[in-house]
Every structure is written in structure tokens, then in C-alpha cells.
Amino acid sequence: GVMRLRRDLGQNSTLGGVLTTREDGDDHSRLAGADLRLYHSRLYFVELQAVQSWTDSAGSTRSDPFLSVTWDRTGRQWGFNYGVNAVGEGFNAAAGFVNRTGVIDAHIFNRLSFYGDQDDLIQTWGGFSRIQRIWDYRDPAGAIEGGESLYPSATLRGGWRLSGAINRDFFTYQPEFYQGFSVELPGDTVAFTLPGRENNQWNGSFGLTTPTWRAVTANVAVSWGKTPIFVEAAPGSMLGLTGTVELRPTAGLRATAQLARLTLQRSRDDSRFSRETIPRLKLEYQLSRAIFFRLVGQYTARERSPLVDRSGNPILIGGVKDEGSTTNELRMDWLFSYRPIPGTLVYLGYGSTMEESRQFRFSDLERSVDGFFAKVSYVFRM
After folding, report:
1. Of 37, 156, 302, 341, which residue is the least packed, with the fewest Cβ within 10 Å?
2. How many Å from the N-terminal Cα to the C-terminal Cα in the chain?
3. What residues form DSSP beta bridges with 129?
4. What span, in angstroms and rounded, lies between the C-alpha atoms of 181 and 301?
């Protein structure tokens, strides 16, 4: 159950409240919160939010808050977003989504935008800057993560767009994630030693996007630099490539093809830690004003080498030596939509996941998951 109330304050500001509950037998997750959004000086707003959750699951209870404050300026040439979020470790939004708990996150985003004349080669240019720090909610004495970034961008005459990023980050390995880890030495097994903070993790990216032509749009981006290999608590490097092509051959047909590839290397000896390749195809067809079809296919090929420590010794988890992993998975999702008038609709969908032992063979696929989806809505007019 979800209930939301909101009241206007003046012309733009609002005051709101929310109540949610998710009940599953004797287990439950309940949440109550309030929020205030105040606009001032035409370009600015302040947003305050306070939420508390209560969760009872498998006989264990926990309760923690989510607190947030944001100050934002939306101007043509200069804008910013400054904010602090504090999420308790026991906070649980079962009727929503909060991807990380137990942290305090503060950020400073600034944007500068400049505009050329109509006939200039560079039509717009500028960028964002980021300063971010993350602390442990239980012990906020020192930041455990953070960094600084610059995101330059420019739009050229004709609609071509250039974008990039330069980042310097730091990370601290959290002890709770390495419980049960040990290291196998010749003739002995010793405890896993957690190293200190990884500093000066420099990395960057560059992207190019075409103009939005009638029949096609495309973009490509490459990223590279230092990154921690968290599961080994060791320094590494990454090289990523992504590309997207969107085709619109007719008014009712659209096809989007994407490819993402990411490789992680160990800094210790430049050996490969992992590699993943993910091609994705989405087809959409608007047969008529009321009838719509969609097909999404995605193949995920991942391989990871056995875990080793910084000296190359095998890592054991729960006393068992890690042997690496391989995933070759094909996912297909179909959707039929019939919507003759707003409010009246029929959705019918089917999705399946299939796996195989070798990448991109498509010869020994075995179905592992099936799912059906249906939704019917009808508006009664009195």
C-alpha cells in the first residue's frame, strides 16, 4: 500500500507526506516520511526530506531514518546542486528502491554553460564539476569514498556532440565485505589482510554523438583508467567501450542496437581479472494508434578468473578456493500493448532466460527462467 499527500504552498512550493507498507505474512516493512520543497529568487529551490522505516523480517526488527537536504540553482549559464543524504543501515524501503544504506553522502555539483552565435562552429560548450564525499553512517570520522570530476562537453554546428570526463577518486575497502576470506599459502592457510585506502584513482572517458537525423542516431564512448578490483581488494585498470545505433526507417518502426564491453586488468602483473560483452537489440513497432509491439534481446557474456591476493596467492571464501566464473546468458522479452483510449489497455508479455556453456554459440541453449506478464485496465465512465 502506498499513500501520498501533497499541498501547494503559494505558487510553486509544496509540502508533502508519504506512507507505505508491504506485508508478507508476519513480515512487514513500513515507512513514513515528510518533504518540503521551497522555491525562492526565481532560479532556486530548497528540498528537505525526512523518512523513517520499520522492518520486521524473519523475527528480526530494524529501524532507521533517511534524511536529505538539497539546494539547487537552475540558470541558463550557471547552475548548481548541493546536497547531503544520510541513510541508516537499517533503513528499508520495500515499496521503493534505495540502492545503498549505512552511508552519509555529500556532493557539490556546479555547471557552467556558454553559447556561441548561430553560425559558429561551437554552438554551446561548458561542463560540470563534481566534489563528493561518502562517510560510514555509524562512524563518520573520515570519508571512506569520494573524488573530484570534470565533465566537459560541446555541441557543434549541425548537432554533433562531444563529451568527456576526468575523474580522481579514492576508495576504502570495508572489512564487513571480506568476512570469511583467507589466503592459501604453500602448506598453510592464513587470514586475508585488508589493505589501506586506494588513492589517486585517475580515469577518464570520451564520447561522440551524431545529430538526430530523421532515420538514424548513433553514439560511441570509450573509458579507461585506474579502478579498484573490490572482490580482491587490489588495484586494477579498466577499459570500456559502448556504442548505440538507433534506426527509424519508418514512422512506426524503431530499432536500437547497443554494445557494451568492459575489461578489468590487475595492476600487479597486468593479468586479466574479468571481461564482459553485452550486445542488446530492441525492436519497437507501432502497428496502429492502439497496437504496439516490442521485442528486447540481450546476450550477457561474462568471465572472471579465480581470485588471488596482491601476491598472486589463491583466495578462499569460507575455506573454499574460488575457481572463477563464467556466464553466457541470452534474455528475450516480448510485449504486446493494446490501448484504444487513455485508461483502457491490455498488456501481454513473455520473457525467458537461456544459458549455454560457450559464448555466442546459440547451439546448446538451455532455458532457465520463464515469466509471463499481463495487465488489463478499463475505465468506467459515469
Report:
1. 341
2. 26
3. 110, 150
4. 27
3 state DSSP class of 233: coil
Over residues 243-292, the pLDDT tens digits come to: 999 999 999 999 999 999 999 999 999 999 999 999 999 999 999 999 99
CA–centroid distance for 152 within its chain: 21
Residue type, 350: Y
CA atoms of 131 and 147, how far apart (whole Å): 6
Q: Look up residue 225 and give its amino acid.
A: G
Distances (CA, A) of 91 to 6, 105, 140, 143, 296: 23, 15, 17, 21, 34
SS3 call for 232: helix
- Quote the cell numbers at residue 108: 557539490
φ/ψ (deg, to 5) at 380: -95, 120
Q: How far apart are CA 62 and CA 87, in angstroms?
A: 13
Residues facing residue 341 across a β-bridge: 344
Q: Is 158 left (phi over 0), alpha (psi -120 to 50) or beta?
A: left
How many helices (DSSP H) and strands (DSSP E) are in the chain?
A: 0, 23
Residue 22, classified by CB atoms within 10 Å of its CB into exposed (0-12), middle (13-18) or buried (19+), is middle
d(CA 148, CA 202): 10
Amino acid at 312: G
Is residue 274 within 8 A of residue 305, CB to CB? The reply is yes
Residues 178, 139, 172, 192: is their CA dihedral positive or negative? Answer: negative
Contact present, 155 and 161 (Cβ < 8 Å)? yes
DSSP conformation class of 342? T
Convert the pLDDT of each residue in 315-359 to its tens digit.
Answer: 999 999 999 999 999 999 999 999 998 889 999 999 999 999 999
Query: In degrees rounded to 5, what are phi and psi of residue 230?
Result: -65, -40
Amino acid at 229: I
Q: Whole-angstrom Cα distance, residue 52 to residue 31?
A: 6
How many residues would you count in the chain? 382
- Report pTM: 0.84
pLDDT digits (tens, 9 = 90+) for 113-142: 999 998 899 999 999 999 999 999 999 989
Q: In angstroms, what CA-CA distances link 216 with 123, 156, 207?
A: 22, 18, 17
* pLDDT in the model for residue 43: 95
